[in-house]
Design goal:
Elements: H1 3-13, E1 37-44, E2 48-62, E3 65-76, H2 78-83, E4 86-95, E5 101-110, E6 113-122, E7 127-132, E8 137-142, H3 152-158, E9 170-177, E10 180-196, E11 199-209, E12 222-227, E13 234-240, E14 245-254
Antiparallel strand pairs: 1-2, 1-14, 2-3, 3-4, 4-5, 5-6, 6-7, 7-8, 9-10, 10-11, 11-12, 12-13, 13-14
């Protein structure tokens, strides 16, 4: 059960979109802004309330460069929380100019399973310094210049133009997680009008190609919907697991940078 919160944060922020290029010669028009707050309700097997996850944005600065400080929190609740407590905290700091991360924090406690790590990204040397506070270790790893962490990936890719994607087109994302660089493939499935608690919303539908086995029931067992507007807000994630299924639905929002195009109220 401890994988529920981790899977939500992982798939929201890792396999949501494929990688495109940003033009640093132009002033970026962000899909998000300081003060944005998103909350997701997670359910297990479509009926059991498993917990909540939130994402929020603050302003920051690094070496006199403007930056965003993004915080992601997840915790179990209800019956799941009584038997298995999860409290996860993820943070990333990204430069506003390039939307690349320079610092990533991961503090988790999942039923007694804990991690406390910090990653510092250096693009001059193309190295990532991983600090493991639980084991009191530091180690440097080689990275690509266009790398993202599992939380910064969402905000970097939310800011990209997805209008040129064709149905069944596959795109890739490179991500540094723990001590390795991973490549993920993602397939664009098309557009869909998605019913939410706020009303019907035009959405873009994606399916990551994941590895089947211990966690996922099949290779293609995860589906993701995001709003088809300038915000590109994740609306829903549905995953078929080896045992049961996981679903995350947008439950609350505020501070969006652009109008949220709800077609009608439920």
């Amino acid at each position: 059960m401890r994988k529920l919160i981790v899977l939500f944060l992982f798939f929201t922020n890792v396999v949501l979109f494929g990688q495109t290029n940003i033009n640093n010669n132009q002033s970026p028009k962000y899909a998000f802004q300081k003060g944005e707050w998103l909350q997701y309700r997670m359910s297990y097997s479509n009926f059991l309330n498993a917990g909540y996850a939130t994402l929020k944005i603050k302003n920051s600065k690094k070496n006199n460069k403007a930056a965003f400080h993004i915080l992601g929190d997840g915790k179990t609740s209800g019956l799941v929380g009584l038997f298995f407590k999860v409290k996860d905290n993820y943070q990333t700091y990204i430069y506003k100019e390039s939307l690349k991360p320079y610092r990533f924090i991961r503090k988790i406690n999942e039923g007694g399973y804990t991690k406390n790590k910090e990653i510092l990204f250096n693009y001059n040397t193309n190295k990532a310094l991983v600090k493991d506070f639980k084991h009191n270790t530091e180690k440097s790893f080689s990275i690509d210049n266009d790398i993202q962490d599992m939380l910064s990936a969402l905000y970097y890719l939310r800011n990209q133009d997805l209008g040129s994607l064709e149905i069944n087109e596959e795109i890739e994302l490179k991500l540094f997680f723990d001590q390795e660089t991973y490549k993920f493939k993602l397939r664009f499935l098309g557009k869909e009008v998605l019913k939410t608690k706020f009303g019907a919303i035009n959405s873009l539908k994606f399916r990551p190609i994941v590895q089947s086995g211990r966690v996922f029931k099949e290779e293609e067992s995860v589906t993701i919907w995001v709003s088809d507007d300038k915000n590109k807000v994740p609306l829903k994630i549905k995953a078929t697991l080896a045992v049961g299924s996981l679903r995350a639905d947008l439950d609350g929002f505020k501070g969006l940078a652009h109008p949220f195009n709800i077609i009608f109220n439920n």
